[in-house]
Write a structure and sequence with these properties.
Blueprint (H helix, E strand, L loop, with lengths): L2 H65 L2 H4 L3 H13 L8 E4 L4 E2 L12 H7 L5 E2 L3 E2 L6 E10 L5 E10 H12 L7 E6 L4 E5 L21 E5 L10 E6 L8 E8 H53 L15 H15 L3 H26 L1 E7 L4 E4 L1 H7 L3 H4 L3 H8 L2 H15 L3 E10 L5 E12 L5 E10 L1 H20 L5 H16 L3 E7 L5 E9 L2 E3 L4 E3 L6 H6 L4 E3 L12 H6 L4 E9 L2 E10 L7 H52 L7 H23 L5 E2 H9 L10 E4 L4 E2 L1 H20 L9 E10 L4 E10 L12 H14 L2 E5 L6 E8 L27
Parallel strand pairs: 25-27
Antiparallel strand pairs: 1-2, 1-6, 3-5, 4-5, 5-6, 7-8, 7-11, 9-10, 10-11, 12-13, 12-16, 14-15, 15-16, 17-18, 17-23, 18-19, 18-20, 21-22, 22-23, 24-26, 27-28, 28-30, 29-30
Helix pairs in contact: 1-6, 6-7, 13-14, 13-17, 14-17, 17-18, 18-19, 18-20, 19-20, 20-21
Amino acid sequence: MSLLTRLYLLVVLAAAPAFGLVLYNDWQLRQAAEAQVEANALRYSRLVSGELDRIFAAVRSTLGAAAKAPAVQSLRGEECTQYLSNLAASHPNLSRLGVIRVDGQGACGLNIRVDPAATPSLRAALGTSDSYLGEYTVGRGSSVPILPFAERIEDANGKPVGVVASGLRLDWLGAYFVEKAKEFPPATSITIVDRNGTILVRLPNRDREGTSLSRYPELRAERGGTLRSQAAHTADGVARILGFTAIPEAPEGVGVAVGLSQDVALEPIRQTTRRNLVLIALTAIVAMSAAWLGGRRFLQNPIRSLVDAAERLRAGDLTSRTPLEGKGSELARLGSAFNAMASELAARDEERNKAAQALRDSEERLLIAQDAARIGVWEWDLAANQISWSRQMYELFGLDPESAASDPYGAWLRILHPEDREETDRTTKGHSARPGPFTNEFRIVAPNGAVRWILVRGRTIPGENGTPRRMVGANLDITEIKEQEIRETFLLTLADRIRDVGRPGELLRTVAELLGLHLKVSCVGYSEINEGEVWATVLTAWRPEGVQESRQRYRTDAFGDAFVELKMGRTFVVDDARTDHRTKSAVQVYESIGAIGSITVPLVRDGRLRGFLFVHQATPRRWTPSERELCEEVAERTWSALERVRADARRRLLINELNHRVKNTLATVQSIAAQAFRANDWRPEVREAFEARLIALSKAHDVLTRESWDGADLREIVAQATAPFSSIGHARFTVEGPPVRLSPSVALSLAMTLHELLTNAVKYGALSVAEGRVAIVWSVDETPESVRLKLTWQESGGPAVSEPQQKGFGSRLIERSLTREHGGEVRITYPAPGLACEIVITLPSEGTAPGTAPGHGAGSDTGDVRRIAG
């Protein structure tokens, strides 16, 4: 292909997008125009329907007035005839008006007789109080096509005596719309059909009026819309877009279709497209001419000169030069470069020496690159069975050149991973038996115990007879790449396995099992830390023999410095607990749980250690950075998934618990009311006692509501209960005790109990005098099996107290809410200093799973930990 031809081709390619853009713009404009035409067609059809509705309304009004005329109602012969004749003369759009009695006999000048039983239209007109609209009909006397109308005539008693009938002249209607069509765009068609599909008006082609609609059954549909007609299907050969109204629409009984010419609507777009294409074509012709003239002057002639000079140089004329020189155009620079090349050919020997030096430099850079990338190169002379390794090979395998040089293959076999040794040996010998390239991956165990992945690529080179003569290969350490691949594959598998897990316990078990099998360790599990950060409780623990959920508890200070680092959010990694200085003081603990080698990943939320993921190995193990990072990522993903699962479980639990609490509240209110108002005792003090108890219950609910019904702090419950007595002075209350988290049920019961004790103290006890004092003190006794809460109420400085003869409602309320509902112990005594109440409740083991708010029951489908007094 010549250069000029290529220039022409470039011009064509440059113009092609412009042509495409014009065509695309034409297509877009056509789409928009057609959509607009459809909207206009539908709008015009509505306008025609509106005109028809107005005309029909006038006809119905005329017939309605005639039907109510006294002369017509009484069917008074000449008077009725004269009235209808005058009325018809004033309405040229109507055919003759006449009256048909109920027996089918014409009246008021209409000399016809019809059989009512055989005339459905007469029966229909007599049977409705509305105007009757018929179908296309040719008048009997006038032979003029009409659209019949009829109106029922009733006598003074409202009894039908006949109908007054007439017809809308379709020739008048057609002429009317001929004039109307002048207001529409050129080539607009109007079609009006009755309910039987007979054409009433057709513009153009009025000769079709009175015939049945043969095409486009959509015009008789139940709903209006648009459709398209083909030019071959229209009498005038014009393709149109039709907008039509349905027969059931107003005016009911006829359908209207208005068609707008597609050619008329699209002609401006076609003209614009033709003009743009002509302009682009002219531009392309001008560009082709410029390419022809400029190509010969600026390209073809200079290149011919350059080719001639090159041919002379190839023939041996080292003095050959081209006159094409300079720094202006590319060809001038090419000519200058050619002349410079020709001038330098005389110094070929010098350049050859420079190339040899460059080769040596390249070999040196290759050695540097091998050192940097840790690429070892080796060669195996198969005929002599001699193997030579580069220095980098020994460094890659961690072998001593002096001891391994005598038998490199044997030294290599000894460091191969036991699981890969046999297969890799067989594969390597197989490569040595057939010429061609080869590649393989295997693991080695370095002298320091680290496992490394090695990639080998090489080629078996044949001799002259085609049999393998030697092997050359390069080894590359791909441990990081391989570990990343294995890690990503494992994380994808983990994500797939836990995506649809809906129970926290199952989630923890699944993750522990997958991580344990992947790392091939002795144990993987999760533990939680209590609020005091004293106890660590095992939630789940996977071992090769299965999953255990013993919920064994350990003191955090029994593991040396581990929990110091965990509290700071640092992963605690131990290769050998027997030699690590951080675990020397707790070696027996690590040995007892089979954690000589371990990785522990903490979960710290809101500045507090909540739990941790642990990975245990019963023997010393050198953990790699990749294994540590994998454990950290698995832990983070597990916390996130666990929060999602528990959030769903928590939502369900809150709904159930709220329902339960509401029921309990109603039962409590019922019990209070029954006790306070028994025997119809409506004394003011009884009502006040009832209201006070309800207020105490409400305040306890307020505390729980603020905590989302997850529980409440005991100190806040005490503060809320003593708040109504603040006028007495807070200095008279002594409140002491550690932080204790209570479940909603225990919080409500204690709130009611404190209210009863405070009410009694105000009325009869220490708070009834200025010198009285009340001490509220509690403590928590934790053991591996349970948690016991002990709360003491002690009054002092008040009036002398004595044991009552019978228990009041307050005492019974305390016993029922704490003893019966929670299995607690309540002991009320009356020593000389003042009333004393001791409450002891045995609570389930405390704990909250890592990253989860208290409130999910252990071993259940909604969580793996228990809250206080669950």
